[in-house]
Amino acid sequence: MKTSSAPIKTTAADPSTWDPEERMSRDELEALQLTRLQHTLKYAYERVPLYTKKFDEAGVRPEDLKELADLRLFPYTTKEDLRQTYPFGMFAVPQDQVARIHASSGTTGRPTVVGYTRGDLDRWGTLVARSLRASGVKSSYKVHNAYGYGLFTGGLGAHFGAETLGCTVIPMSGGQTEKQIQLIRDFEPDTILCTPTYLLTIGDAMQKAGLDPRATSLKNAVLGAEPWTEEMRRELEVMFDIDACDIYGLSEVMGPGVAGECVETKDGAHIWEDHFRPEIIDPFDDTKVLGDGEHGELVFTSLTKEALPIIRYRTHDLTRLLPGTSRPSMRRMGRITGRNDDMIILRGVNLFPSQIEEIALRVPGLSPHFQLEITRPDRMDELTVKIERREDCTSEAAVAAAATLKKEIKIHIGSSCGIQVVEPGSLARSSGKLRRIYDLRKEQPQG
Ligand code: DLL
Fold first, then answer.
1. Domain-wise residue ranges, the chain
2. Among residues 7, 5, 24, which one has the least CA distance to residue 15?
3. Whose CA is nearest to atom 28 of ligand 1?
4. What's the gap in Å between 338 CA and the centre of ligand 1?
5. Whole-model pTM?
6. Of all protein residues, whose CA lies closest to atom 20 belonging to ligand 1?
7. What's the CATH class of domain 15-23+116-337?
8. Which residue ranges does the record assign to the AMP-dependent ligase C-terminal domain (predicted)?
9. What are the average pLDDT values for consecutive 10-residue runs of the chain, which has 447 residues?
10. Cβ distance 385 to 356 under 8 Å?
């Protein structure tokens, strides 16, 4: 059986094809970061009224940054800042220099709007191309892009990155799963780009139609836009007989391609530190910047962005910084456990959907299709894990699997929860970012 640590179909990129910055020493990289950071702080302070105000209120000036560690003197930027200045208040260039606009879906409140100059788009294309190349995509490959096109940065961001790398791009977008399957069969792509849960949806639909996902032309997948685990990587690699690598990003900082995983090590995404300076802070006490290896909230400062420079953006993503491996000078990010706004606090215990995914996928008979329902029947919060049994797991075996899952969750997370094993195919499927949490204390479930 394949394991997640060994490359299967694709091989490590040839270092002679790397960008020069990927070959820099750490000292050279930090010198570049310092120059770029000093420029960005001055640029943002002079051009974006919100930054002028924030820096003045905090009593700091761009010249106060003498070394990289001085970044901690500067104020944070939050999603709320982008909402307050909706739509274009944080843009640092006049509109005629803005080549593209994207926006977040804005499920709560106003969407956050981001802009790109022509130069920003070129750098974005280069970084997505770098991420894809690191993940084993070759310029000769056909790339099936199933990230959603439109205001979401996934579709167009991945598209231009794959074109920049020199690939043949199939701009399929998300959804229409049957058509996805048909195009994968007819066009025979080498690579698929989508969210991990959507790849699972596609694989599932293939199996239901009597097709073997392992028999497709696909060699690899570059997956992101939502948290996923090593267990899910293994599931997808075995299901499709592919290499699956991670790609990370967020619209406020650029879009996909802020960090990308190398196929030769599959040990977390390398942050492209020539363009972004990462920090980890204590999410509960933002005066504390944590050291490498410590878990906390990821914060980014852009180093080269023109239309929307962003200073110390609080991502709400929880992870840690690790030393570089296959790109020694660029630090890696650990897998994202979750977002602190996706954290379930169940009778005092913190819990993320990714922890359930990790545990559930180790229980034979249970599938990766699950959702978490939170209710409050008796003034006490209760969590129910609704999870599909696998096709080859009998109803009797499912009862034992449920008991195992309940016990493992209690041991590893410390929470007691209800388990409901449901029929294969009965839970909502993803066509992009999957919603895992259904908080029935506040709302009725959707989908
Ligand atoms: O999801 C950009 C993207 C598109 C990344 C395609 C990768 C591939 P947003 O819609 O702004 O942008 O959502 C950003 O998604 O703060 C994380 O919480 C989550 N996220 C993105 N990539 C990963 C990943 C895009 N690889 C938010 N692992 C981020 C875990 C991820 N979470």
1. 15-23+116-337, 343-439
2. 24
3. 227
4. 11
5. 0.96
6. 225
7. alpha beta
8. 348-441
9. 48 82 97 98 98 98 98 97 96 98 79 96 98 97 98 98 98 98 98 98 97 98 97 98 98 98 97 98 97 98 98 98 97 94 89 96 97 93 96 95 98 96 96 94 56
10. yes
